[in-house]
């Protein structure tokens, strides 16, 4: 049982923790301060109430436009403000995107995400993107995109084209945000999420840890996410990947245990959300990843890359799943556990091959 100084849990008449949007910063900091075993135990209780504890969601992502972004996000190698050796690429042709989506579907994926390094989409680009959504949707896949900021009208057009999910991360706390990004405001990020939700799409939004923020900033980030009503369907929790040439290349590493604590607190605050173990897995050993799953993470990005940063190779992911007894979350494309296990093996191997061959396909609902 939780210790006597555990934060108060509000419950429904059935005894299950209720979905809350009013967590105070003090309550969240108290969760972070729990003894590690108590925190993970509580996160496990919440996780098992709403999910199969051994099921992990897997999706596929394609970078449809890379580099030369006008934003100055200090962590990002795609920013045009820094010299990181990343080659910029123009928007992919629709046919290239559809080809990759077909390959992802054949490999067992049920969701296909597309990401572009923009501040916000221009009209001529949005027209092309809308057609990408329509054609990928016609393949029977769920669709997800991250295109930077969108307004009400753009969000409505994306929803009408069939877009299911939109990714737009808050990145960090409101108080620390100005230390990381100056070219767009926190309010603009929240406005984009509001436009996405108003248009009827599902929300994917999380943040990045290990950017030099204080523990209170990590609590405040999760508070902001938990205040969204409804909660984001997907909450990517990223560990900073330090890239040479960016202002954060020499920031001190975050203690992995602190990262796991954030996963657990996110699970408690947003019980029905998929908490995504996102960027930074390349630097994590198997034990750290196993703790993340124990703490309530139930989604990963597979493949060799996440947009422009490294990710564990597909064979490593497959081996880790087998070692931990995990299986992919069942979708319409995976009707039985045997089929699901076959699908992930095929998906991971094919994704690895495609990444090396074409440097196009990466993974899931965005870091």
TrEMBL record:
Binds 1 [2Fe-2S] cluster. The cluster is coordinated with 3 cysteines and 1 arginine. [2Fe-2S] cluster binds at residues 113, 144, 204, 276. [4Fe-4S] cluster binds at residues 69, 73, 76. SMART domains: BATS, Elp3. InterPro entries: Aldolase_TIM, BATS_dom, Biotin_synth/BioAB, Biotin_synthase, Elp3/MiaA/NifB-like_rSAM, rSAM, rSAM_sf. Pathway: Cofactor biosynthesis; biotin biosynthesis; biotin from 7,8-diaminononanoate: step 2/2. One of its GO terms (biological process) is biotin biosynthetic process. Keywords: 2Fe-2S, 4Fe-4S, Biotin biosynthesis, Iron, Iron-sulfur, Metal-binding, S-adenosyl-L-methionine, Transferase. It catalyses: (4R,5S)-dethiobiotin + (sulfur carrier)-SH + 2 reduced [2Fe-2S]-[ferredoxin] + 2 S-adenosyl-L-methionine = (sulfur carrier)-H + biotin + 2 5'-deoxyadenosine + 2 L-methionine + 2 oxidized [2Fe-2S]-[ferredoxin]. Its cofactor is [2Fe-2S] cluster; [4Fe-4S] cluster. Its EC number is 2.8.1.6. One of its GO terms (molecular function) is biotin synthase activity. It holds the Pfam family Radical_SAM. CDD domains: Radical_SAM. Transmembrane segments: none annotated. Residues 54-281 form the Radical SAM core domain. Catalyzes the conversion of dethiobiotin (DTB) to biotin by the insertion of a sulfur atom into dethiobiotin via a radical-based mechanism. Belongs to the radical SAM superfamily. Biotin synthase family. Homodimer. PANTHER family: BIOTIN SYNTHASE, BIOTIN SYNTHASE, MITOCHONDRIAL. This is Biotin synthase. It comes from Candidatus Halomonas stercoripullorum. The lineage of its organism: Bacteria, Pseudomonadati, Pseudomonadota, Gammaproteobacteria, Oceanospirillales.
């Amino acid at each position: 049982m939780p210790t006597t100084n555990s934060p108060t849990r509000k419950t429904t008449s059935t005894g299950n923790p209720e979905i809350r949007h009013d967590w105070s910063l003090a309550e969240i900091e108290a969760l972070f301060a729990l003894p590690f075993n108590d925190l993970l135990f509580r996160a496990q209780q919440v996780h098992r109430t709403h999910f199969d504890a051994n099921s992990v969601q897997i999706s596929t992502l394609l970078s449809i436009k890379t580099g030369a972004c006008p934003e100055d996000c200090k962590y990002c190698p795609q920013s045009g403000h820094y010299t990181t050796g990343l080659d910029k690429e123009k928007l992919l042709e629709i046919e290239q995107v559809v080809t990759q989506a077909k390959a992802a579907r054949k490999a067992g994926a049920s969701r296909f995400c597309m990401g572009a390094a923009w501040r916000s989409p221009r009209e001529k680009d949005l027209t092309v993107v809308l057609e990408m959504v329509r054609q990928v949707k016609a393949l029977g896949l769920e669709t997800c995109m991250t295109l930077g900021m969108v307004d009400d009208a753009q969000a409505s057009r994306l929803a009408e084209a069939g877009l299911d999910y939109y990714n737009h991360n808050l990145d960090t706390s409101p108080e620390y945000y100005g230390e990381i990004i100056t070219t767009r405001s926190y309010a603009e990020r929240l406005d984009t999420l509001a436009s996405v939700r108003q248009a009827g799409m599902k929300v994917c939004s999380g943040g990045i840890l290990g950017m030099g923020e204080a523990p209170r900033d990590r609590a405040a980030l999760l508070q902001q996410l938990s205040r969204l009503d409804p909660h984001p369907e997907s909450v990517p929790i990223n560990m900073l990947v330090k890239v040479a040439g960016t202002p954060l290349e020499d920031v001190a590493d975050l203690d992995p245990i602190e990262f796991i604590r954030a996963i657990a607190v996110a699970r408690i605050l947003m019980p029905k959300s998929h908490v995504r173990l996102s960027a930074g897995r390349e630097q994590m050993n198997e034990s750290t990843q196993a703790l993340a799953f124990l703490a309530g993470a139930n989604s990963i990005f597979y493949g060799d890359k996440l947009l422009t940063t490294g990710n564990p190779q597909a064979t490593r992911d497959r081996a880790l799943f087998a070692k931990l007894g995990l299986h992919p979350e069942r979708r319409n494309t995976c009707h039985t556990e045997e089929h699901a296990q076959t699908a992930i093996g095929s998906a991971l191997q094919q994704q690895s091959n495609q990444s090396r061959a074409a440097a196009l396909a990466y993974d899931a609902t965005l870091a």
